[in-house]
Amino acid sequence: MKTKLKIAAGFLALTAITVGLFSFGDKDTTDPSKIKVEGEMVAELTAPPFVPKPVGNRAATKLIVNMEIKEMEGEMADGVKYTYWTFGGSVPGSFIRTRIGDEVQFHLKNHPDNKLPHNIDLHAVTGPGGGATSSLVAPGHEKVFNFKCLNPGLYVYHCATAPVGMHIANGMYGLILVEPEGGLPPVDKEYYIMQGDFYTKGAYGEQGSQPFDMEKAIKEQPDYVVFNGKVGALTGDKAITAKKGETVRIYMGNGGPNLVSSFHVIGEIFDKVNIEGGHLINKDVQTTLVPAGGSAIVEFKVDVPGTFILVDHSIFRAFNKGAIGMLKVDGEQEKTIYSGTVQEGIYLAEGGTIQNMPKEKGVAKSTVAKTVPEQVKAGKEIYGRTCFACHQSEGQGIPNAFPPLAKSDYLNANPKKAIDAVLHGLSGEITVNGKKYNSVMTSQNLTDEEIANVLTYVYNSWGNNKTNVTAPMVKNQRGKVVAKAKDIHE
Ligand code: CU
Known about the structure:
single chain, 23 strands, 490 residues, binds copper (II) ion, alpha/beta
């Protein structure tokens, strides 16, 4: 038995070696440490979501990277200020693009206005601390060190000055790409995105200047989980874009400091993923794991137009902590791939008679709310089970996702718009109290009375204009749209 196991183990080891050799075979066989460099150049550095030009066919060179550390105030979300520590003035830090065999001369400059020493650990570096041991630099100083790029791949870099977690939590991370000989295959669009988790004294959305919260960071309970350093960095007019038929490549990193990302694009499938930013390619992937301090390169062709939502599919992070981005794709509809709604009708689960009963019963049974206070009382109960999840208990909504109902100029301008939204749902961009929202509200299956009551409750709460919405008003709106739909069909 023992011998058999040994043989099996031996066979497995042999298989592993063979597989290892095989995957080595598709790499350049030259020892990367022996690749000669030609001339020198200053590296192009870019702020997210953009990346420098591909290396293409250029020879390995001496690449000079000038990276400046800046401690600066920024906005975590609307009205929420946060002091970020940055590589190059952005979170994530400047994207660095190199090729295998490059000799990088790294200049780390700590701006004189900064308060703290910092350093840099690049995961692309073969050497102690990934450069951290050679790069600790005080404000108003510069440190220089050199390294040779031995392994192609997409690597995270970060500050590694104590307390390391705090430096990373404040935004000190970015990506460095080491392209293989001849460069990566060309694509139409390339973007740079990094996820990060943030820990603030105040809860999500709490206004004003928010200091870092070490307790929450140690407990791994972030208030914010975001792409590119802030809520809304990639939504609305800051969305990344492509045209139908183009191939999009995203260099996706995760700075952490704590959470692992389940990166997903709603309505797309990754044609190719360089798992963990390395050599191994997986195909036809729905969601890819991006470790803290790790990366992935995802590629997909966009076949249909529309807005595609980027999320961490640990989904409360997306809808409640900010991990949402957008890819807007322009172009003609492609009905054979995606038809859009082709039919909408009544669904009778168990036949018409049974379907109709609860509603008739409900109306007959419920003491119809006659006065405004009665309507408000009934409406509050409906709000609690229907609207509350998105619009929140005090009608405050969720920043960048669901508009507020409190003191809402949108609602107060015209109750017909409110009735239509509840009756038929709402999609596309709307502006509420000066802020743009672009999410989807589903139509609510409520009776005329229920809609009247819930809207009367909303209008009589949180500083709204006390409109009394009645069942006949709702009925009237319902009728109008039916007539319109009829016109279209005829
Ligand atoms: Cu630092």
